[in-house]
Structures are given as C-alpha cells and as structure tokens.
Amino acid sequence: MTGRRGDDGQVTILVIGFVVVALALVAVVASAAQVHLERARLAALADFAALAAAEQVSDEAYYAPSDQTPGETPGETPGVSSGGACEGTGPDCSSCEGTGPGCSSDAALGPTGEEAMATVRAYLADHPDPAARWTDLRVLAVDSDGRTVRVTLGAVVRPAWTAWVLAPFTDGIAVTASSDASAW
Questions:
Q1: Where are the alpha helices (DSSP H) in the chain?
Q2: Do 103 and 167 fall into the same domain?
Q3: Residues in the chain with pLDDT < 70?
C-alpha cells in the first residue's frame, strides 16, 4: 500500500489546469461580447450622426431663386448645356430624371458632402459623452447624394479582460460602423 503514494495530488493539478482553461475561455468570450457591444454602440452613434446630417438643409439650395436650380448660373436655360443636351434638369420631368422647373426638386435641398461632414463633426463635438467611450474615434467617410447621407465611423476597442494579453501585440481592436439616413 505504500507504493501508491506517488499518485496523490495528481487530480488537484488537473483541476487547477481545467479551471485556468475555463477562466481563459470565459475571458475570451467576455472580450468578444464587449467588442460586439462596442460596435453596436458605434453603429448607434453613426445612426444619430447620419440623421443629424440628413436633416440639414443645404444653404445653397434653400436660398436659390425658385426658377434656378442650385449650382446653376442665372440667365442659363435650365437643364440645357451649351450643346443643348439635358443635364438632369429641365421642364420635362420624365426626360430629365425628375428635377427642374415644374418638377419636385426636394433632393437638391439635402446637404452637400462638405455640409454633411461639418454637421457630423459638430454633432460629435456637441455630444461628447457617447463619443468619449473610445480613445480613437474617427469619422472615416461622409457621403451625401442630396437626399441620403452615409456616415462611416471607426474606433479602437480595448477589451478589459484580454487587454493584458493583447497589449504586446496590438493597441486594440479596430471596429467600424456605417449608417444611412434620409430626412424624407
């Protein structure tokens, strides 16, 4: 019976090993969940910024005379280039893509790309609490077609549970989120 004493304590080592593996697995799952939640929060912030930009009205379009479309020089024949071809505006809505004198030109009231970018930056500056979650929040792109605004934001997430493991290899996990918004 004294020959079997060499096996004592082996189960304890196995249990400790399994507990370490289980804790590491829980840390990885918790970190993955944190990255997913941070991406969802970034998507919500992109939604709000896109909506703020889409609700913006272009100053140029708003103050343009009613017989002139934005960007058109006064005295020109609307929708006709120097060669006489339709350029997307004109008296006949069907032949000129639905814009021009007598047609609904609501799309021209939307913000330009520069105005949308300025509105998104102003929104993020005016709402610092949601933007403060990330140390490296960036506006990657803002596109506007005059009716719909697309905002793409990027940030770096540093998961709390695995930060000590990832610190030597990376500065965090980059996440991006895009959102489209139309005001009407």
A1: 10-54, 59-62, 113-126, 128-131, 163-166
A2: no
A3: 1-7, 58-61, 66-108, 163-170
Which residues make beta-bridge pairs with 138?
A: 154
What is the percent of the chain where pLDDT is above 70? Answer: 64
53 and 140 part of one domain: yes
Q: Which residues pair with 181 in a beta bridge?
A: 149
Q: What is the pTM of this model?
A: 0.66
Mean pLDDT for the chain overall:
76
Say yes or no: 42 and 63 in one domain.
no
Return all residues near 55 (Cβ < 8 A) that are at least 6 apart. 183
Residue numbers of the domain that contains 99: 59-109
Which residue shows structure tokens 């609501």?
106
